[in-house]
Amino acid sequence: MSQQNPVFIPGPTNIPEAIRKAVDMPTIDHRSPAFGQMLHPAIANVRKVLKSEAAEVFLFPSTGTGGWETAITNTLSPGDKVLAARNGMFSHRWIDMCQRHGLKVEVVQARWGAGIPADRFEEILTADRGHEIKVVLATHNETATGVRSDIAAVRRALDAAGHPALLFVDGVSSIGSMDFRMDDWGVDIAVTGSQKGFMLPAGLAIVAFSAKAKAAGETATLPRTFFDIRDMERTYAANGYPYTPAVGLINGLKFSSDMLLAEGLENVFARHHRIAEGVRRAVAAWGLRLCAESPDLCSDTVSAILAPEGFNATEIVNRAAAAYGVAFGTGLGEVAGKVFRIGHLGSLTDVMALSGIATAEMVMVDLGLPIRLGSGVAAAQDFYRHGAPAKRAAA
Fold first, then answer.
1. Which residues contact 132 (CB under 8 A, 6 or more apart)?
2. Which of 186, 145, 188 has the alpha carbon at shortest distance from 340?
3. Can you name the CATH fold of 265-386?
4. With contact defined as beta carbons under 8 Å apart, do 176 and 198 qualify?
5. 299-346 pLDDT, tens digit each
6. Which residues share a beta bridge with 264?
7. Average pLDDT of the chain?
8. So what's the pLDDT on residue 286?
9. Residues 6+ apart with CB under 8 A from 351
10. At what angle do helices 89-100 and 64-73 cross, to 10 degrees?
11. Four-way CATH pick for 17-261: 3.40.640.10, 3.40.50.12780, 3.30.450.70, 3.90.320.10
């Protein structure tokens, strides 16, 4: 795999050189004031990216999976009931984690390619007159299928049912790249990681709690040690950490979030939408379809592209890596072998996206698929030239 080529996987994403240098720093005493000068600005910036005034943000040396565990262990007790939809690999994994922790999960099965069925959630929550359901889980952007769900609709379902359950949202592949409104959507816990929209190496779980979610921790009895937000909160107040922090990554988070805010969040979201739309125009020009079942569900960070019937889509990913040194994403779970994924998030521009589209075309032609060389590139070029104007990218 050539390190000179950008990657087109849905995370970890390309790391801008300036951010890489911010992570690559000398050792400091993480109990000195210098650490607090990195930590608190990084937390404040993340709160702005989440569009929240009051959320408390915690940074754990982990990944998004650790963020999921942080959410459930700090708020729930064994036997508590959770409501979730299974519509992709990452919603499936969060459900599995809950079950392993002894929680009762009411699972709403949805097609892989569909969004969260908020109307079904409303029916279930309305019928739960005893309020046994303590938490509703929602995956904002299902990375395996390229599907974005409507979190505002999930909040409306809770409100229409008059239900007090907490709302937890996996925003690992959306936060920092797509519009996320923690306060407006009434999200109680938002989970993301360092390696996607924040353009950093993997290694930080970024978890934001509402006051309601924090209050739930006072009676929660699931075991928690490493992921205990009480320890984090206490040591943050003294510019410290309950154990050794990932200092370089936290410094990088301060730097990368500064870059996102300097670009302007609305510009960041517009850039991602524009690049994604160019990829979608290319897919249409190839005569292929997306896994997402309708345009309103299409993710602006990853496109899962259905291969022709009977063709193993993993061959496209393997050929791209072997012949051209370019990384695309394979299909996962129920769509393994059926889709290949083009990640278009983080540090990416129209021009970089065109190189990924061109590579995908060459690979499919190499493999004998009925794709006309240049068709997708031309469709994307036409959109990038005449579509929404380019803004300065985070780079």
1. 81
2. 145
3. Aspartate Aminotransferase, domain 1 (3.90.1150)
4. yes
5. 999 999 999 999 999 999 999 999 999 999 999 999 999 999 999 999
6. none
7. 96
8. 98
9. none
10. 40
11. 3.40.640.10
pLDDT value at residue 386? 84
**Do the strands 147-148 and 141-142 form a parallel or antiparallel pair, or are they unpaired?**
antiparallel
User: What single string gives the DSSP state of each residue in 165-226?
Assistant: -EEEEE-TTTBTTB---TTTTT-SEEEEETTSTT---S-EEEEEE-HHHHHHTTT--S--ST
DSSP label at residue 308: P
CA distance 187 to 174: 14
- The pLDDT, as a whole number, for residue 170 is 98
Q: Residue 79's Cα: distance from chain center in Å? A: 28
The whole-number pLDDT of residue 395 equals: 39
Q: Find, among 82, 253, 94, the residue nearest to 167 by Cα.
A: 82
Residue 39 is encoded by which pair of tokens? 């930590």
- Residues of the chain short of pLDDT 70, as ranges, are 1-2, 387-395
d(CA 373, CA 379): 12
Domain boundaries in the chain? 17-261, 265-386
Q: Is the pTM of this model over 0.70?
A: yes
Sheet (strand 133-139) strand order: 56-61, 204-209, 189-193, 166-170, 133-139, 81-86, 104-109
